[in-house]
Amino acid sequence: EVAPGMGNPRRLDHPMSNHDAAMTRLSQWWRRNVRGGHAMAQGAWRHGWRGDPYNHRRVLSVFVWTLGPLALTLALWFVISWWAILALGLYDLLTLRIAWNARRKPWNTLDTLVWAAFIVLGKWPEMLGVLRFHWHRLTGAGPKIIEHKSADTSA
User: Fold this and answer.
1) What rounded mean pLDDT belongs to the chain?
2) Cα(89)–Cα(83) distance, rounded to whole angstroms?
3) Inter-residue long-range contacts of 2-7, CB under 8 Å, 24+ positions, other chains counted
4) Contact 76/65 with Cβ under 8 angstroms?
5) At how many degrees (to 10) do helices 123-139 and 109-121 cross?
């Protein structure tokens, strides 16, 4: 048990570092997510199926939630025409599920929904990163470093 006023015994009572992504453009966010997809694919590949399944689930999630609703929409298009667009509502359902699971965060409802929407949208650049990793792996081409900001550290 922790004595009153001592705080969390596993954390210091003052910040030791400051994380500042300083992303001000959508293109920076996109590149960061491509890099994240590349990293999760690399981790999944490196550790194989016997290792921690965390990255495998994330890679699978990227493909399920990018290609799944899109394939369903295209398949339904030939059967029930414009009603197939409703299949794209799966993205809305995923956004709402993510927002619901984040309800304990100290954000208002709009901020939570925007955050969740960007999590869902981020699956597309993550998929590109996964594909890029496997392309480099299969062709023997070395990956280029993906930076979301310039290397200028004078700021």
Assistant:
1) 81
2) 11
3) none
4) no
5) 20
